[in-house]
Write a structure and sequence with these properties.
Blueprint (H helix, E strand, L loop, with lengths): L2 H9 L8 E4 L3 H15 L5 E4 L2 H9 L13 E6 L3 E2 L5 E2 L6 H9 L1 E9 L12 E5 L4 H9 L4 E4 L1 E2 L2 E2 L7 E6 L6 H9 L4 E4 L1 E2 L5 E5 L5 E5 L2 E2 L2
Parallel strand pairs: 1-2, 1-3, 3-6, 6-14
Antiparallel strand pairs: 4-5, 5-13, 7-11, 7-12, 8-11, 9-10, 14-15, 15-16
Helix pairs in contact: 1-2
Length: about 230
């Protein structure tokens, strides 16, 4: 049983006709987009906005109607994956390189459902390197300032050159090991000149759906386990 797939299919049950839906990015969100495409073919009437060029292309191939922010005011529901999530529904995202667009879409959403496999929940955030999106000009200075916050910053590369996000920025993966105070860290990182945003998605998720290796599906909400 594919853990990512069963989590994605459970999340798609929350879709309703007439919704504007945010489409996430990454290997788990792939399954959500695929399931949404099936529902659209079966008659579900929605509009969608994607968090990356890759997800938008995937959605268009499946016949999912895509809109832009110029055409909508809010997003009813976004379904996206995560790299880490804790029991308080605090999340690290951005391993797939789309953190800024993911955060813009999440911030515009009435509800954010995070879908993960059972390897992503953690007791404390930080084992997964925290992605930070920075502008290319003067990025070396931003990297030094990030290091001063107690991490080992590593510029993300693709084929030996800096990886570029869909917005033409660089990503610095910050190895903290443990993040003791995520709210304070989020603020400190975003105060660095040249930083666009970081992969801490704090107090944004309403629900986490976890696909387990035994085929079970767990749901967490703000009040603890829902299933």
């Amino acid at each position: 049983m594919d853990r990512k797939r069963i989590a994605a299919e459970r999340a798609a049950r929350y879709l309703r006709d007439g919704m504007v839906v945010g489409l996430g990015t990454g290997s788990t969100a792939y399954w959500a987009i695929r399931e949404i495409g099936r529902l659209v073919r079966d008659g579900l009437s929605i509009r969608a906005i994607a968090t990356s060029k890759q997800s938008e292309a995937h959605a268009r191939r499946l016949g999912i109607p895509i809109v832009s922010f110029a055409e909508i005011d809010t997003i009813d529901l976004t379904i996206d994956g995560a790299d880490e999530v804790d029991a308080d529904l605090q999340v690290i995202k951005g391993g797939g390189g789309a953190l800024l667009r993911e955060k813009i879409v999440a911030g515009a959403s009435k509800e954010l459902i995070i879908i993960v496999d059972d390897e992503k929940p953690v007791e404390q955030l930080g084992k997964f390197p925290l992605p930070v999106e920075v502008v290319p000009f003067g990025f070396e200075l931003a990297v030094r300032r990030l290091q001063e916050l107690g991490c080992k910053p590593v510029l993300r590369l693709h084929e030996e050159i800096p990886f570029l996000t869909d917005n033409g920025n660089y990503t610095v993966d910050c190895h903290f090991g443990r993040i003791e105070h995520p709210i304070e860290l989020h603020t400190a990182i975003n105060r660095i000149v040249g930083v666009v945003d970081n992969g801490l998605f704090l107090n944004m998720a309403n629900r986490v759906i976890i696909g387990c290796s035994d085929g079970a599906v767990k749901e967490w909400d703000k009040h603890g386990d829902a299933v």
